[in-house]
Amino acid sequence: MISNDLMVLQDFEISIDHSRKTLVEIKNQLEGNNPAKIALADFVKTEEHVKKLSLEQKELNDVLLQVLERISNTEKSLYSGKSSSSKELSGLQKDLGSLNARKSKLEEDLILIMEKYDHAKVKFDNAAEVLKAEEKSWNEKAKVLMQKGKELYSQMKILETDLKKARQKLPKEPLDLYDKLKVSKGFAVAKLEKELCSGCGVGLPFNEAQKARDSKDIFNCKNCARILVAN
Ligand SMILES: [Zn+2]
Fold first, then answer.
1. In this structure, which CATH number among 2.40.30.10, 3.60.21.70, 1.10.287.1700, 3.40.718.10 belongs to the domain 33-168?
2. CA 172 / ligand 1 centre spacing (Å)
3. How far is the CA of 197 from the centre of ligand 1 (A)?
4. How many other CB atoms are there within 10 angstroms of residue 174's CB atom?
5. Ligand 1 center to residue 170 CA distance, Å?
6. Spatial distance between the Cα atoms of 141 and 147, rounded to a whole number of angstroms
7. 225 C-alpha to center of ligand 1: Å?
8. What is the pLDDT of residue 157?
9. 160 CA to middle of ligand 1, Å?
10. What is the pLDDT of residue 147?
């Protein structure tokens, strides 16, 4: 019966539509944010922090070395006995005092930055481990998703061919009606279930329902105009 053939068309279209939606979901999952991407962003952030602290530590250490050298030179001048002017000696002592104060401050800063570095390094090592685990699990998941997408795509192509063939077998008039109803109603064929149209839910009088069941031609729901197929 032609209504049943149209129902088959509709089922093909529903399956194709479903496959297409699932393929979009798969694509979004593959391209969108995933735990591995989040872990990578965290890894890069912690890595940059460690590098920054390491550089700061090195710079501070260089300054400290310069200060230590200046202290050593000042001490040499002070205790060499070459200088006898008291003004010069007190000047050197003053310099030494401020250099030692600078040294203490630098040492304190260096300890602080080393503590920060150690803390950041723990975070970085942890982020590296998380990244490794997340990448492994994501790669496996992505592989499964890609395989699923590939299979679904092949199935969809087969369904599309089947749909085309099924349409070619049908006369023009019912096909046009089907297409028109599909555009206006979303779906063209509805089931007649216990005197009720599955499309709009409205009940048919008993004799109408009987007519729909017996009809060899297309029988439309009086309420929504959809093509009715009796079980
Ligand atoms: Zn209806």
1. 1.10.287.1700
2. 23
3. 5
4. 18
5. 23
6. 10
7. 6
8. 97
9. 28
10. 98
- Residue 191 CA, ligand 1 centroid: distance in Å: 9
Q: Where are the domains of the chain?
A: 33-168, 172-230
The Å distance, Cα 162 to ligand 1 centre, comes to: 28
Q: How far is CA 188 from CA 38, 111, 173, 176, 227, in A?
A: 45, 77, 14, 11, 6
Alpha helices, DSSP H only, in the chain?
2-31, 35-79, 86-168, 172-185, 206-214
Please tell me the distance between residue 154's alpha carbon and the centre of ligand 1 in angstroms.
35
Span from the CA of 195 to the centroid of ligand 1 (angstroms): 11
Residue 191: phi, psi to the nearest 5?
A: -90, 145
Place of tokens 């000042």: 74
Torsion sign across C-alpha atoms 133, 135, 136, 140: positive
Residue 17: what pLDDT? Answer: 96
Burial class (CB in 10 A: 0-12, 13-18, 19+), 197: buried
Distance between Cα 61 and ligand 1 center (Å): 84
Averaged pLDDT in 10-residue chunks for the chain of 231 residues: 92 96 96 94 98 97 98 92 83 95 98 98 98 97 97 97 95 96 96 92 88 86 93 73
Closest listed residue to residue 12, CA positions, set 120, 153, 126, 159: 159
